[in-house]
């Protein structure tokens, strides 16, 4: 086993506070070098029933714990994550591949979310509001939903889990969590941290297994009343339609085709820096990664020169080696998908000016590496400009005006993140108004969300819910309207008395 850090060769499900094995398991490999790191159990879905039973029991008690006391667990978890940040980051790099600097950033998001949601333990605000009738009091309050299910992807194996599980926990729910099979270690670590932080048994349950078995069992379980999912569009649509049939609340965060607009008055050095960071960071495997650059014709060539120079400086390899800035692709299937889009771009007539090939010299051949790739003179309607590639591939699309830039930005089926580089204050405010994505950046790339703001997108990116921010509480709580009549007589609302 490559990971002495983990101190285990096989992981276990975490159900009702017990660490439970399974008959079936799969190897988890390090995408940087193909080494087996650990074995993950694969439930056939049956463990979901046991986990839900444990969760139902635990949730009844947890809901009665005052929220400020629930918060103590999250404060403690935040402290433990902080103390273990480096270990978590190294394990994260081993299972996911992202470079250490980014892995530390991801763990930091989890720490921030722990403290932020712990703070919600003393807020969880509802409203008091005037009543229509005399001697009557009215208010609304948040209530737990019960047992909630979360399904997370491999690309942010700890941050996304905290965006979902911490609001659920502070809201008085119990959680069944199915992490992505590629990245189970962060789930193991987070569950251990919550256990050691005093979370009562059964409030968090981790069930490992494939989406088609464990995920499907969760989606169809009558006692899981909310499903919160982050992942691909196809899977999300399927989950939404299955949940719809059961009148189950479902929150979806899915793909993106995020663009950076570079106007003729932009600081081009800054723009190039922002593009390279957003496009090639995490090897382009962020839902918010920039995969389109919409550039004003007048600065296209100057921007290209800067981008090519910066791409040249990128070093690619194992993320544990801190001299590297770009790590591997998660697996062979991911790499083949990226290669197929590089071919599609060439067939469509876009001009390939950087990368476009797999890196397999020496040790790189043991992992999955694609060179940072740049197409220019791409057309907005090309598939490489429309479809999510989820790799280090960027299409540069020239435009003639601000209005055309906005139109191209909005002309895709996704709506997660967008950005504009400009020094014109009027354009800043027009762009903020007209870009139809859930996240907008000005003079920064498309990545870098902060956890106290709502995270999510419009159109095909989601279904109107948001992860993180106080808005995440809406997914995991029900609103209750309460009327207290202290008049001592029957007062009938909306009924004429004359
Ligand atoms: P995916 O294939 O949809 O997998 C995501 C999760 O869903 C995994 O845990 C997977 O389990 C599970 N799953 C698969 N099939 C399922 C089914 N039939 N029922 C229930 N669960 C099922 O997505 P991915 O390729 O791993 O992740 C990349 C995608 O996530 C990209 O499209 C990216 O844009 C998106 N993403 C979006 C955001 C956002 O917030 N908008 C953030 C990050 C990533 P197994 O893999 O274990 O089978």
Automatic annotation (TrEMBL):
Domain Aldehyde dehydrogenase: 19-482
Entry keyword Cytoplasm: no
Enzyme Commission number(s) of this protein: 1.2.1.3
Database matches in InterPro entries: Ald_DH/histidinol_DH, Ald_DH_C, Ald_DH_CS_CYS, Ald_DH_CS_GLU, Ald_DH_N, Aldehyde_DH_dom, ALDH7A1-like
Family the entry assigns: Belongs to the aldehyde dehydrogenase family.
Active site: 253
Organism annotation: Lentibacillus halophilus
Database matches in PANTHER family: ALPHA-AMINOADIPIC SEMIALDEHYDE DEHYDROGENASE (PTHR43521)
Enzymatic class: oxidoreductase
Keyword set, alphabetical order: NAD, Oxidoreductase
Subunit structure as annotated in this protein's UniProt entry: Homotetramer.
UniProt protein name: aldehyde dehydrogenase (NAD(+))
Keyword Iron-sulfur: no
């Amino acid at each position: 086993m490559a990971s002495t850090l983990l101190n285990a060769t096989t992981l276990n499900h975490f159900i009702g506070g017990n660490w439970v094995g399974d008959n079936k398991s799969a190897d988890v490999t390090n995408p940087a070098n193909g080494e087996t790191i650990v074995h993950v159990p694969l439930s056939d879905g049956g463990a979901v029933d046991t986990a839900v039973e444990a969760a139902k029991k635990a949730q009844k008690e947890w809901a009665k714990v005052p929220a400020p006391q629930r918060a103590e667990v999250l404060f403690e978890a935040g402290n433990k994550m902080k103390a273990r940040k480096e270990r978590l980051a190294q394990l994260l790099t081993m299972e996911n591949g992202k470079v250490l600097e980014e892995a530390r950033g991801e763990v930091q998001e989890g720490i921030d979310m722990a403290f932020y949601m712990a703070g919600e333990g003393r807020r969880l605000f509802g409203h008091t509001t005037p009543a229509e009738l005399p001697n009557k009091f009215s208010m609304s309050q948040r209530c737990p939903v019960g047992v909630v299910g979360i399904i997370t992807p491999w690309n942010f194996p700890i941050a996304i889990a905290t965006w979902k599980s911490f609001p659920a926990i502070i809201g008085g729910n119990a959680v069944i969590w199915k992490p992505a099979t590629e990245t189970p270690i962060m789930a193991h670590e987070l569950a251990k941290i919550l256990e050691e932080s005093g979370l009562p048994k059964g409030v968090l349950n981790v069930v490992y297994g494939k989406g088609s078995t464990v995920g499907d069992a969760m989606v169809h379980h009558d006692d899981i009343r909310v499903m919160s999912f982050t992942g691909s569009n196809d899977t999300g649509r399927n989950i939404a339609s299955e949940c719809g049939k059961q009148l189950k609340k479902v929150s979806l965060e899915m793909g993106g085709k995020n663009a950076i607009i570079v106007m003729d008055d932009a600081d081009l050095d800054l723009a190039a820096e922002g593009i390279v960071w957003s496009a090639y960071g995490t090897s382009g495997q962020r839902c918010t990664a920039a995969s389109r650059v919409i550039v004003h014709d007048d600065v296209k060539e100057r921007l290209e020169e800067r981008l090519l120079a910066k791409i040249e400086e990128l070093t690619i390899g194992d993320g544990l080696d801190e001299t590297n800035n770009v790590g591997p692709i998660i697996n062979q299937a991911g790499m083949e998908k990226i290669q197929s889009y590089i071919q599609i771009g060439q067939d469509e007539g876009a001009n390939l000016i950087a990368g476009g090939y797999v890196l397999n010299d020496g040790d790189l051949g043991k992992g999955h590496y694609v060179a940072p790739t740049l197409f220019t003179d791409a057309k907005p309607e090309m598939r490489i400009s429309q479809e999510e590639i989820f790799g280090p591939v960027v299409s540069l699309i020239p435009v003639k005006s601000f209005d055309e830039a906005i139109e191209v930005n909005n002309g895709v089926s996704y709506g997660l993140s967008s950005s504009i580089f400009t020094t014109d204050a009027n354009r800043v405010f027009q762009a903020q108004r007209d870009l139809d994505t859930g996240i907008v950046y000005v003079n920064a790339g498309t990545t870098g969300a902060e956890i106290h703001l709502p995270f999510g997108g419009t159109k095909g990116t989601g279904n109107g819910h948001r992860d993180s921010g106080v808005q995440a509480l809406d997914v995991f709580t029900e609103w209750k309207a309460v009327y207290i009549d202290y008049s001592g007589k029957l007062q009938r609302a909306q009924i004429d008395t004359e």
